[in-house]
# Entry
Amino acid sequence: MTQLSPAGTSTTRVVVPKAARMVADALRERILDKQVVAGSHLPPAEVLIEEFGVSRATLREALNVLESEGLVRLRRGPGGGAIVTAPDGQAIMRSLDSLLRFEGTTVEQVMEVRLVVDPLAARLAAVHADDADLARIAESVDRQARPEVIGSHERWFEENLRFHWAIAAASHNPLVRVLSESLHNIVLTGGLPVAFDPSERRGSLADHASIHERIVARDGDGAACRVREHLERSLALRAKYT
# Structure
């Protein structure tokens, strides 16, 4: 590619992808296209080295890239190799978490996005949640009501996040789930928010129970409305303490 330099002279910049990245890209496409199913092995190293015309070190670097993305698990020893794993969104969430934290995302900014994402998750959960999903949401509500949880800011806060994670998973929409979990992780890793008193936690618990009831009733509009009201109350409480 030819470009003009600041001085006006013509320069040529050639961008050559690293061999390991090219190999990783090719293998990633095979995995995502399900040419190799989860739980099976990629071809042996010797076969891949010959196919791509790269060194063993380059192939190892490519496989390390895929492992960091959660697409393969590297196992050494007899019966080892690169075993294909089903993507679970963890690599995407880690990248998004890092980006948002690096940008200095505030709790208020996270809540602004949650006001869109969380009601959508609840609406979808009311349509798509199966029995196991409903049980996980109900179990979280039950745990929040325990004295040792509702009496502890740290334990209650963590269970509060689990409740919203359960709803996001119940949406059965991977984009909603990954985005919701990333937003909640920003709050979790960024430090606990202001410590609401037990009476305010009980109010939050009542909100959660109502949200659960709407999801069980398959009332998507009602579930989304309850979640939005719940988040708006949380924002109002935060403003009261800050």
Residues 1-16 have pLDDT under 50 and may be disordered. The longest strand covers residues 72-75. The CA atoms of residues 70 and 88 lie 7 Å apart. The radius of gyration is 24 Å.
